[in-house]
Specification:
Helix content: 40-55%
Number of helices: 8
CATH architecture: 3-Layer(aba) Sandwich
Number of strands: 6
CATH topology: Rossmann fold
Largest sheet: 6 strands, mixed
Keywords: Hydrolase
GO molecular function: hydrolase activity, acting on ester bonds
Number of domains: 1
Low-confidence stretches: none
Shape: globular
Organism: Shimia marina
Domain SGNH hydrolase-type esterase: 53-223
Structural class: alpha/beta
Mean pLDDT: 93
Pfam family, one: Lipase_GDSL_2
Order of helices and strands: HEEHHEHEHHEHEH
Length: 236
């Protein structure tokens, strides 16, 4: 696969990109993961075992509590239709590889549905599309064999090239790479029996951004949870 212009420019721009990236990482990690439950049961109706995995967005950074984060908002919506037994495995800085390693060593619980929110840290660490899709494919295998997952909803990557607090040229470089990995994820899901790609169709507006300018706000988590609920019900 031919290299994009952004990939060719990384070497000459490396010193500047490193300085910019260190500054961004320091600012982006200032918000903590919110307190609250990371597992539970809610709702009535047919039983649904749900596992949510991912990075700081899955962990709810930008929300005040887990009930206002992705896990709380998603389980609240699904509980209107199912009795949801849910579990959250997510941490700030997680990549596909680190989540994969964690899942290979924790106690397994059945997970009919898995929601995955990964990719931003794979982008910032410079993982190639080939390595990213390989790790995503391996992740799906582990979720199917160890957790008996029937459907894995892989959330698309956010538009990192639009983040106003990312300085140029870092913003452009990361934006191009995020698009590249998201295209790879969509292509993998299109041919995979249990993977389903859900584009992250959350408007890029100030009200959907947390105070750090990088993570989702509570309003964004609410919209994201609504989109996921609709996607899950459509594919069940």
């Amino acid at each position: 696969m031919p290299y994009g212009i952004d990939q060719l420019l990384r070497i000459p721009l490396a010193p500047l990109l490193l300085v910019q990236a260190l500054g961004v990482r320091k600012r982006a990690n200032q918000l903590p993961e919110p307190p609250g439950n990371r597992s539970g049961t809610c709702g009535t109706g047919p039983e649904l075992n749900l596992l949510i995995i991912g990075d700081s967005s899955a962990a709810g950074v930008g929300a005040g509590t887990q009930s206002q984060a992705l896990s709380g908002q998603l389980t609240a919506r699904l509980s209107e239709h199912f009795q949801v037994h849910w579990r959250l495995i997510a941490e700030t800085g997680a990549t596909t590889k680190t989540i994969l390693q964690k899942l290979e060593h924790i106690d397994t619980q059945p997970a009919d549905i898995v929601v995955s929110a990964l990719g931003v840290n794979d982008v910032t660490r410079g993982f190639s599309r080939a390595r990213w899709t390989h790790n995503q494919d391996r992740l799906a295998q582990v979720l199917a064999t160890r957790f008996n997952a029937h459907l894995i909803v892989a959330s698309g990557l956010p538009p990192m090239g639009m983040y106003p607090k990312l300085p140029q040229p870092l913003r452009w470089i990361l934006g191009q790479q995020a698009n590249r990995l998201d295209q790879g994820l969509a292509a993998l899901c299109a041919k995979h029996p249990i993977l389903s790609h859900m584009p992250l169709d959350v408007p890029f507006e100030p009200r959907y951004q947390a105070s750090d300018g990088y993570h989702p706000s509570e309003e964004a988590y609410a919209l994201w949870a609504t989109l996921l609920t609709e996607h899950i019900r459509k594919h069940l």
